[in-house]
Specification:
- The protein is α+β, with helices and mostly antiparallel strands.
- Helix content is 46%, strand content 18%.
- It has helices at residues 2-14, 22-32, 60-69, 90-97, 101-106, 109-115, 149-171, 182-188, 207-215, 231-246, 278-281, 303-311, 315-325, 330-337, 341-355, 360-374, and strands at 37-44, 50-57, 88-89, 122-131, 134-142, 192-196, 202-205, 219-222, 225-228, 258-259, 268-273, 289-293.
- A five-stranded antiparallel sheet has the order 2-1-5-4-3, with helices on both faces.
- Strand 6 (192-196) and strand 7 form a beta hairpin.
- It is globular.
């Protein structure tokens, strides 16, 4: 099982270099979740056009039916309210829509022409990208009522890995060819990308990255190594690169949307592990990771978002940090979330461990400390 999971996550990261590989990765996900059809899409929220649209299903007629009626989904305006890395069923969308959500859904063209004919009883949906004008989702259509938590746990575990691949893919808006290798793509990017060894030694930097290294606003080069000027960011990058070398499965949310600190050109970084991609993409044998640095303004972060990115917090842990920052007690957090005090205690313990804080007061101090460097105007 661990080998299968590692192979599946590796196949997700392979898609960064070639979008055509998404069908294979989604087919593996579909099989693991016992799904009928799985889709991955990044939508422009203004036009509803899909900037990335991939489908995996063994029935070509079902794929055609889905494509013909995908724009008819009545919940499109609610996609931005889906939680990152937190899978749920159609019932979530019904509740977000209102009391007549299910009725509206069953009267819609997508339900009549795809769900009903192919006996789709439900779906497992999750947000994998959220930007001001773009929302990315994965949707697993199933012919059963999903009640087995193991399926949701699997999708949640895959969420950060899909999110990393989709986030970086979203940055690679340029011409591609089927035979293009990732390094060729990186070299032509307007976005800064640095390829590093496991000790953060710089093996390659594209032209945009060279400019970033020279201006030393958010990153610099010291003794041949990549250094983020913000110490929390540096720690996050070093940890992520190391994790990617040792165990891609354990990466989780580490190294996605990492804030690089305050400057006239604020930026965030995304780390793509490369160890298992070296032979296929002809990188140097020492290549451990590619660090993609998004352009200023690409991600608008709050202090809570920054904490979550720097310390790889889960969605639930991020919400708890928000409550702590607002001054809520443990009992009040328990009531606000509708969970037991024991659950909140466990969540706080995990947060304290990840952030190297020891109580709610020191966690509040950390939020205040992080806020100035990552505030966006």
């Amino acid at each position: 099982m661990e080998r299968d999971l590692s192979d599946l996550i590796g196949s997700i990261y392979d898609c960064v270099a070639s979008e055509s590989l998404w069908t294979q990765a989604l087919s593996l996900i579909n099989r693991q979740a016992n799904g009928f059809l799985t889709t991955l899409a990044v939508f422009d929220t203004n036009t509803r056009a899909a900037r990335l649209a991939q489908v995996a299903c063994d029935d070509p007629a079902a794929i055609r039916a889905l494509i013909d009626h995908a724009r008819d989904v009545p919940f499109f305006h609610l996609l931005h309210r889906m939680a990152i890395d937190e899978p749920d069923t159609l019932e979530r969308m019904f509740n977000l829509y209102g009391h007549d959500g299910e009725a509206v859904w069953k009267n819609g063209a997508l339900y009549r022409n795809f769900h009903a004919p192919y006996k789709i009883l439900n779906s497992i949906d999750m947000a994998v990208l959220k930007r001001p004008t773009r929302v990315g989702t994965i949707n697993i259509s199933v012919q059963y009522e999903p009640t087995d938590r193991r399926v949701f746990n699997l999708v949640a575990l895959l969420g950060p890995h899909i999110r990393r691949a989709v986030t970086i893919n979203d940055m690679l808006e340029m011409e591609r060819t089927e035979n293009a290798v990732l390094r060729d793509v990186i070299g032509a990017l307007d976005q800064a990308v640095v390829i590093v060894a496991d000790d953060m030694s710089i093996l390659f930097a594209n032209a945009a990255a060279e400019d970033r290294l020279r201006d030393q606003a958010v990153i610099e080069q010291r003794t041949g190594k990549l250094i983020a000027r913000h110490p929390y960011a540096q720690a996050a990058l070093v940890k992520t690169v190391g994790l990617g070398v040792r165990d891609e499965v354990a990466l989780g949310a580490a190294g996605i949307d990492v804030p690089l600190g305050s400057s006239s050109n604020p930026a965030v970084a995304h780390v793509l592990p490369l160890q298992n991609r070296i032979n296929r993409e002809r990188f140097e044998s020492r290549a451990a990771a590619a660090v993609f640095i998004a352009a200023a303004g690409t991600v608008v972060q709050s202090a809570i978002d920054a904490i979550a990115a720097l310390f790889a917090l889960t969605g639930a842990e991020r919400r708890v940090v928000g409550y702590v920052a607002d001054g809520l007690s443990r009992a009040e957090i328990s009531e606000a979330q509708g969970v037991s005090d024991g659950t909140v205690k466990s969540q706080l313990a995990a947060i304290f461990d990840k952030t190297n804080t020891h109580d709610q007061r020191s966690l509040q101090h950390l939020v205040r400390e992080i806020t100035p460097p990552v505030r966006r105007r």
